[in-house]
TrEMBL record:
One Pfam family here: LytR_cpsA_psr
Record-linked Gene3D superfamilies: LCP protein (3.40.630.190)
Location of the region described as Disordered in the Swiss-Prot/TrEMBL record: 1-27, 458-521
Biased composition (Low complexity): 459-470
Organism: Arthrobacter sunyaminii
Transmembrane segments: 33-51, 63-84, 96-120, 132-155
Domain Cell envelope-related transcriptional attenuator: 196-377
Acidic residues biased stretches: 471-482
Keywords: Membrane, Transmembrane, Transmembrane helix
Name the UniProt record assigns to this protein: LCP family protein
Family: Belongs to the LytR/CpsA/Psr (LCP) family.
Keyword Coiled coil in record: no
């Protein structure tokens, strides 16, 4: 008697086609093979219980039911406390344990399928059915064990990315019910000394609802004050006010070169200094920073599969600087108006271009890019492109956000996705005009009142802006020099509107003067750039900050 049949009672069971298929007709053997494969797929171990090694089957079923219980517990936790679930998955030790568990389950399931194939006894099948069963088994092994193995691999990718990007430190507590993060986009090319954050904003998030406000800080902002508890308050007791050399985006490198000892134990003294300056400007306690390398920014957009933006007006893709001048060659290309799906290269230039317009147009476009990324980084995109997104983020993002609090921040991000993000630029058009140099001589009482009003939901009405002069009456000054990377150099505090086609620096009404304008085409704009008609270009492009996420 076959040893596997020792547990059977009665001679009648010897002819049972489930355990003894040799006595069954061909069609029954085929049906039995499909059923056993289905049992191993749906309830691993059950095929062994009914037709093979029952001891092995019982142990496999115990593992199966335990895994089901864990999955059900995870689903319940996802519905009741998803923050805890994310923290468990992103924690170094628990994620490692989960990765090992997934690997073991992948191997075990594959071995069960092979054991099921032995129970099926392929030589007893009709010749034409043998490749069908073998092919089906291969597909099931790839779909089950392969899926678990790939999940373990992706979890390891995520573990590495999280460990590389996020800091290990104490959790942050909300301040007055809000989290305040500073987001900086910087270029640190070979032709630059250190990092220069050309894009700066503070994102203030309600800790309960996720409702967010973005406060954008112009890079040429001057006289930034420092909170009393900042070490820079003693160095600059009257604020960062050494003239045109002390525009806001120069503070990072100034501290890195001259005052790194003021922030002992900090991994990035320059970022700490920028947070102190932002805190003083906005009268908010900025708690953490995120730095995104702008050259690598395009990789993240590509990893997401692109972003969709309602562009507004035409935006030039700036060419290199003409040697010996402070001008650029005619643009290398143009980003057309309308709703567009942008790849990384296009989105990068859309966010950084400021030729022929103001830095405030660029700030508005950067805000649109940020909003589009938040809106379009949905769970489906994250799951299907996780490896590329994690790899890109690991290369371009640096932050001091604590890893152990990642779950609560992701939960806030999910809440924020369903709500509009308010925006305020600490400069034109929300404060003053380029003509009155608000960013050079800011009214901090006015700024603090507006910021506090927006946070409380009772924002004060902005003061009326000074009347704008007609753009065509005076040609704009030359654009600020740019480095070889194509990124314009920072403006000084006295030339806020120097590279614009309007005197005020305000974002113009896209419909203004439309009746007098000729048809605007890429060829026409390129022609104006070639003949250096910056005044007309400034007028035609004055609506390229009127954008929105697509």
């Amino acid at each position: 008697m076959d040893p596997r049949n020792r547990e059977n009672d009665g001679a009648g069971l010897l002819t049972d086609p489930v355990r003894n298929p040799q006595s069954a007709p061909p069609h029954t053997r085929t049906k039995r093979a499909f059923i056993l494969l289905l049992l191993t797929l749906v309830l691993p171990g059950s095929a062994q219980v009914v037709a093979g090694n029952r001891r092995l089957g019982r142990r496999a079923l115990q593992v199966t039911f335990t895994v089901w219980a864990l999955v059900i517990a995870a689903l319940v936790l996802a519905m009741t406390n998803r923050i805890m679930l994310v923290n468990l998955v992103t924690n170094g030790w628990t994620s490692f344990a989960l990765m090992v568990l997934l690997g073991l389950l992948a191997v075990g399931w594959a071995l069960l399928f092979l054991n099921t194939l032995r129970i099926i006894r392929p030589p007893l099948l009709e010749r034409r059915m043998r490749p069908v069963i073998a092919g089906l088994l291969a597909l099931l092994v790839v779909g089950t064990s392969g899926g678990l193995a790939y999940s373990a691999y992706m979890l390891n990718v995520g573990r590495h990315a999280v460990g590389s990007i996020f800091a290990s430190g104490p959790s942050l507590d909300p301040v007055d019910g809000r989290y305040n993060f500073m987001l900086m986009g910087g270029d640190a090319g070979e032709d630059r000394t250190g990092l220069r954050p050309d894009s700066m904003s503070v994102i203030s998030v309600d800790a309960k609802t996720g409702k967010s406000i973005t406060f954008s800080l112009p890079r040429n902002f001057q006289n930034a004050p420092f909170p009393a508890d900042s070490p820079l308050a003693e160095v600059y007791p009257d604020g960062y006010n050494c003239g045109d050399e002390c525009i806001l985006n120069s503070l990072y490198q100034t501290v890195m070169e001259n005052y790194p000892d003021l922030y002992p134990g900090s991994a990035d003294p320059g970022a700490e200094a920028m947070m102190d300056a932002a805190s003083g400007i906005l009268d908010l306690e900025v708690q953490a920073y995120v730095i995104v390398d702008m050259e690598g920014f395009s990789k993240l957009i590509d990893a997401m599969g692109g972003i969709t933006i309602d562009v507004g007006g035409w935006v030039p893709i700036t060419a290199g600087e003409i040697p010996g001048t402070n001008r650029h060659y005619p643009p290398d290309g143009w980003i057309a108006p309308g709703t567009q799906k942008m790849d990384g290269y296009t989105a990068l230039w859309y966010a950084r271009s400021r030729e022929f317009v103001t830095d405030y147009h660029r700030i508005a476009r950067q805000q649109c890019v940020q909003q589009a990324m938040v809106a379009q980084l949905d769970p489906a995109t994250l799951l299907t492109r996780f490896q590329a997104i994690a790899s890109a983020g690991e290369q371009i993002v640096k932050t001091d956000l604590p890893q152990d609090q990642l779950g609560s921040f992701l939960d806030l991000a999910l809440k924020a996705k369903g709500q509009p993000m308010e925006r305020l630029t600490i400069g034109p058009p929300d404060f003053g005009t380029a003509a009155d140099n608000f960013v050079t001589y800011p009214d901090f009482d006015q700024i603090h009142a507006r910021v506090a009003g927006m946070i409380s939901g009772q924002a004060a009405e902005p003061e009326p802006a000074a009347p704008a002069e007609a753009p065509a009456e005076e040609a704009p000054a030359e654009e600020a020099p740019a480095d070889d990377s194509g990124a314009p150099a920072p403006e000084t505090g006295t030339d806020t509107g120097a590279d614009i086609g309007t005197e005020t620096g305000e974002l113009a009404d896209p419909g203004a003067g439309a009746a007098e304008q000729p048809e605007i085409t890429q060829e026409y704009l390129q022609y104006l750039a070639e003949i250096q008609d910056d005044a007309t270009l400034g007028t035609l492009l004055s609506n390229n900050g009127n954008c929105s996420p697509g």
